[in-house]
Design goal:
A: 289 residues, Beta-Lactamase, Helix Hairpins, 13% strand, B: 123 residues, alpha/beta, 5-stranded parallel sheet
């Protein structure tokens, strides 16, 4: 069987196919966990590594994504702690290739007994003016070479685009949530305002009805009073109108007593009207107070 | 017209009306009632006679409105002339809604008003 490593065009086709699969699957991911799963399955066909760690500078803080053979870890809240060489990469932008690896971090991520002469590779990329650091741990068994850097750059582009998309989706989601909360608040306030308006309307309606009722009562009282006063007055006027048809004796004996009776009745009615008006006035004054 | 019936709770008003009618030369019988219920009873007893009722509106036991409604209930509607101290247009309009109300006079009654009334309804 032919050794593929010596057939460059076949090797190119295999690599191209592996990258296509990786890029295709990454583009379909909706979450960081899904990105992690795809990377765990496909990245090993593109280059060797024990750990690959990506950090991206945000407006405030950094986010990170880390992958080993068995585990995926990420923190996109912008609270990631940078490793010492990453801080240097952000400051100086000079790639790193060293055997001096932060031990604690290494032991936290992989079983160090399985690796032989580990090496740390570090780069800083500027993708669409977004700064990204990439840290890769390789060793004698899982060897990484300068020839792999081009493929690494392609995969980092792919990761970065997806991370950016997820980050925008999260931002949009957050904004949507804020808008929904604002909308809910507006609805609650609207309901409160509507309730106040309805209450005011009810009070106005009630007060208007009370005023109308009072007006009606007062009109009725004034009409009744006017009628009650006019009644004895009209009798007095009618009796006076009879004077020419009676002689003096008849006027004194028949008409004058009737005028007196009517006048007394009129006085009585007027006193009642004055009493009623006084009581109404007092009740209005009390209500006002 | 066979008779004139005066219905007013105030006997002095009936006295004035009766005197003015007599002065005007009315010779047909004039009866007067201060109790509208009794006047109604009498009217319903002699149904069919050509009577004219001079009726007050504001009476304590039975108002002029109730009086007329009772006549309608009993399907007897003699000529009615309202004689009231009310100056309300509402009362006037309401009274003239009754088809058998022929006139509406506001007190005080005097010789001129009685003459006009008699010219229209007695002769």
């Amino acid at each position: 069987m032919q050794d593929i490593s010596k057939n460059s065009s076949q090797l190119y086709r295999i690599t191209y196919e592996a990258y296509s699969k990786f890029a295709n699957k990454i583009s379909r991911c909706a979450t960081l966990a899904e990105v992690g799963e795809v990377a765990k399955t496909h990245l090993k066909y593109l280059f060797n590594f024990h750990i690959i760690r990506i950090t991206i500078a945000q407006e405030e803080g950094h986010v990170f994504f880390s992958l080993t053979k068995d585990a995926v870890d990420f923190d996109f809240k912008g609270e990631a702690q940078l490793l010492a060489h990453e801080k240097e990469l952000y400051e100086k932008e000079i790639p790193v290739h060293t055997t001096n690896i932060p031990e604690e971090w290494l032991e936290r991520n992989i079983d160090t007994s399985t690796i032989v002469e580990p090496e740390l590779w570090g780069w800083l990329f500027n993708n669409h003016s977004r700064k990204i650091t990439v840290t890769l741990i390789s060793d004698k068994i899982k060897n990484f070479g300068v020839g792999d850097i081009e493929m690494l750059k392609l995969t980092i582009d792919c990761f970065e685009t997806k991370f950016h998309e997820i980050s925008l989706a999260r931002l949009l989601d957050k904004k949507n949530q804020s808008l929904t909360e604002a909308l809910n608040l507006i609805q609650v306030k609207n309901e409160e305002i509507q309730s106040i308006v309805n209450n005011q309307k009810r009070i106005i309606k009630q007060r208007t009805s009370e005023i109308l009722e009072k007006n009606k009562k007062l009109l009725h009282i004034s009409a009744l009073n006017a009628h009650n006063i006019r009644e004895p007055l009209s009798r007095i006027q009618g009796l006076i109108g009879l004077f020419p048809h009676f002689d003096d004796a008849e006027i004194r004996s028949e008409i004058i007593p009737k005028i007196e009776t009517s006048a007394e009745e009129m006085d009585q009615v007027l006193q009642e009207v004055i009493l009623m008006a006084t009581q109404e006035l007092e009740s209005l004054t009390m209500e006002k107070e | 017209m066979n008779s004139v019936i005066l219905v007013d709770d105030q006997p002095i008003t009936n006295f004035i009306t009766k005197k003015l009618l007599q002065i005007e030369g009315i010779t047909i019988p004039i009866s007067d009632f201060t109790n509208p219920a009794k006047a109604l009873e009498m009217l319903l007893q002699q149904k069919g006679e050509d009577d004219m009722v001079i009726l007050d509106l504001n009476m304590p036991e039975m108002s002029g409105w109730d009086f007329m409604d009772r006549l309608i209930e009993n399907q007897y509607t003699p000529r009615i002339v309202i004689l009231t101290s009310s100056t309300s247009d509402l009362d006037r309009e309401k009274a003239l809604d009754y088809s058998f109300v022929k006139d509406y006079i506001i007190k005080p009654l005097n010789q001129n008003k009685i003459s006009e009334l008699c010219t229209k309804h007695c002769k």
